[in-house]
């Protein structure tokens, strides 16, 4: 079941994971992700992954699998299966994800053993990384401004022993605000022609293309919103590029699932930074640090 659970609004506190399971908020008592290939309905932030990160209303969440339960070190690659694949599906379809968090994760106090339901989040990015020499999946989730508390809001209330404030109705985000002017510049250079497939999509309102960031904005990638980090792509190629099906090598050759597809169209006034393309290749193949 996706979305809110009747009787368990954002801010609901559970004595343990079993109580959250019984309420239907996170329908597994062990796994961090509750989901299938069709989509993941919830995740749980516990003390498991040091790579998980919280900044404002953004959460960087590491996928499941590949770790030795005794040492916590990775001993195998993670795979796009079950809940991991479900979170990718959530990203594609913009399905809401319930987020449950252990009190100790929010406050840093290991004595906190209860779990707090934060609300609904959306998967805004996903990529491959590398830990202990093995591939891991990383997901960025952002709080829905109308249906969730940020981790910071919950943490502040817990530390002070206060009641939660009324659920906010405006977005409190630390995401970079995109520069519309630089996006229009890259599209103008190519006359809305896709740099990968050379398609110039025509609509009743004129030609259309999208500006795609090579190194993604926001945590954990922190890419810059500059012309050197942008491509002009059609919607299909944009989706494939962001979905890590398409990469570009240092010579400008485009590969789809590691098979040569085309040469990247590069305008003489577009000084594309090949370092950002290398970064994109790394997060598409699991080599980022």
> How many domain regions?
2
Shape: elongated
The helical percent reads: 10-25%
What is the C-alpha radius of gyration, as a whole number of Å?
Answer: 20 Å
CATH architecture of the largest domain: Roll
| Total count of strands | 15
Major β-sheet profile:
8 strands, mixed
Q: Spans with pLDDT under 50 lasting ≥5 residues?
A: 169-176
CATH class descriptor name of the largest domain: Mainly Beta
Element order: H for helix, E for strand? EHEEEEHEHEEHHEEEEHEEEH
CATH topology grouping of the largest domain: PUA domain-like
CATH superfamily (homologous) name of the largest domain: SRA-YDG
Query: What is the distance, rounded to the nearest whole angstrom, between the alpha carbons of the first and last residues?
Result: 35 Å
Characterization of the model:
- By secondary structure, this protein is of the alpha+beta class.
- It folds into two domains: 13-160, Roll (PUA domain-like); 180-285, no CATH class.
- It has seven helices and 15 strands.
- The protein has helices at residues 17-23, 82-93, 103-107, 151-160, 180-189, 235-242, 274-285, and strands spanning 13-14, 33-36, 39-45, 53-55, 58-62, 97-102, 115-131, 134-148, 201-203, 206-208, 210-213, 230-233, 246-248, 253-256, 259-263.
- Strands 1, 2, 3, 4, 5, 6, 7 and 8 form an eight-stranded mixed β-sheet that branches.
- Strand 9 and strand 10 form a beta hairpin.
- The longest helix is centred in the first third of the chain and has 12 residues, at 82-93.
- The two termini are 35 Å apart.
- Mean pLDDT is 88; it is low at 169-176.
- It comes from Arthrobacter jiangjiafuii.
- Keywords: Endonuclease, Hydrolase, Nuclease.
């Amino acid at each position: 079941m996706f979305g809110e659970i009747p009787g368990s609004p954002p801010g609901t506190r559970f004595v343990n994971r079993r109580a959250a399971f019984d309420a239907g908020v996170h329908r597994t008592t062990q796994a961090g992700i509750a989901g299938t290939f069709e989509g993941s309905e919830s995740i749980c932030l516990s003390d498991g992954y040091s790579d998980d990160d919280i900044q404002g209303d953004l959460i960087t969440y590491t996928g499941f699998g590949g770790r030795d339960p005794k040492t916590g070190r990775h001993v195998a690659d993670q795979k796009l299966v079950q809940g991991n694949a479900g979170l990718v599906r959530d990203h594609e379809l913009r399905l809401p994800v319930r987020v449950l968090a252990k009190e100790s994760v929010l406050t840093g106090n290991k004595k906190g053993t209860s779990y707090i339901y934060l609300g609904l989040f959306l998967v805004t990015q996903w990529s491959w990384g590398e830990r202990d020499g093995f591939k891991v999946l990383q997901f960025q989730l952002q709080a829905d401004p109308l249906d969730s508390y940020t981790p910071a809001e919950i943490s502040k209330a817990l530390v002070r022993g206060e009641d939660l404030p009324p659920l906010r109705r405006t977005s409190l985000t630390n995401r970079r605000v995109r520069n519309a002017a630089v996006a229009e510049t890259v599209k103008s250079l190519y006359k809305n022609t896709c740099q990968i497939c050379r398609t110039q999509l025509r609509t009743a309102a004129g030609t259309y293309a999208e500006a795609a960031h090579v190194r993604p904005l926001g945590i954990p990638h922190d890419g810059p919103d500059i012309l050197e980090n942008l491509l002009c792509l059609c919607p299909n190629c944009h989706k494939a590029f962001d979905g890590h099906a398409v990469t570009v090598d240092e010579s400008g050759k485009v590969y789809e699932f590691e098979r040569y597809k085309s040469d990247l169209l590069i305008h003489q006034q577009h000084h594309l930074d090949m370092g950002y393309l290398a970064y994109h290749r790394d997060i598409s193949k699991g080599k980022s640090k």
